[in-house]
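Reply to dn_fold:

You asked what the input looked like. This is it:
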Amino acid sequence: MKQQLNALCVLGAIAGIGFVAPQAEAALLIGNTRGNSIVIYDEINNTILRDFTTPGANGLRDPDAITIGPDGNVYVSVGGNSGLNLFDPAYPKDSAVLRFNLLGEFLGVAASGNGLARPYGNAFGPDGNLYVSSFRTNEILRFDGKTGAFLDVFASDNNKGLGSPNGLNGPNGLLFGPDGSLYVTTQGSANNAAGDLVFPFASQVLRYTPEQVLGKQPTTTPSVFIDQPALLPDTEFISLLGLTFALDFSSLYVSDFAGGIRQYDLAGTLLDVLSTNYTGTTPTSNFMGGLTFGADTSNLFAVGFDTRNNNLGSVLTFANGQGSSASFTGSLFTDTQLIRPIGIAAVPAAAVPEPTTIAGVSLAIAGLNLARRRRQKSR
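and this is what came back:
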């Protein structure tokens, strides 16, 4: 993969776009929901480099999921407090997905309106469109990936946000598989008739088939890819959240907001559990956000925060995606710049370029995606 990225860097230089192969290592983008900021984290040297963009600017409030789009831009779900009464006039109306380039410059709103209420997950589908989970309305909305125009409600709980058994109840993370399937983590929540958030359903991973994604079959009945798992010994509830594939696409890692990372094969069978209880408390006092594999390493990264310590955030690293189920055995980076981190995404080192390198960055990201696709095809 590194050789392919280097080749693309050389190609960019030959094309006369002013790109010089970056000397910095690959980076992660981490979203701080309470800091209203996104920071750049050096995945090799384990340090925060700087803010990716100006904290709080351009509607950057309570950032959640972070996605690198097929255009090489950064897409961030924003919009505050999901726990308020949905009918309260004070309920935040700023839910959106914001678009930034790789220099951290604001490019506009990529998705908003049309009932979007607290977008947690966002992902680009095989059709090039942007899919966004609307957590409080139990919907997945679809927007034109280039113009941001609203297209349709891709899927819902089929019960006007009140929830349904094995349905789209509190959708969190979104992830497309190599076959075009859409995987969705659900919290198991819904609205009651009064507009309050309740938790009457199981937390699950649902799967929409390629046929459903392409509109050849209705999305009213997704399959339950992973039913609510058993509680881990040091957790008190289950709220599945983040999704990422192993680097060879042979398995799926799922983070639990309550604690822990579970690894499943592509039939939905549990393979392993990685403890994330880095505070060592029972029950664990640290909650978990999203997860991703690094751009230039085979390490699995996750973010968490300590509820006993003003939501102080940490980055957890698991070498080769492996750990212990009995106790946290990964490495830990903690910094006061991390305040309740949730979103995380990996990009090549060119995610922090000089202004003249932006075209080369897009080529580098294209190379990363190509490398992963080729790796999947060779399985």
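The chain is about 10% helix and 40% strand.
Hope that clears it up.
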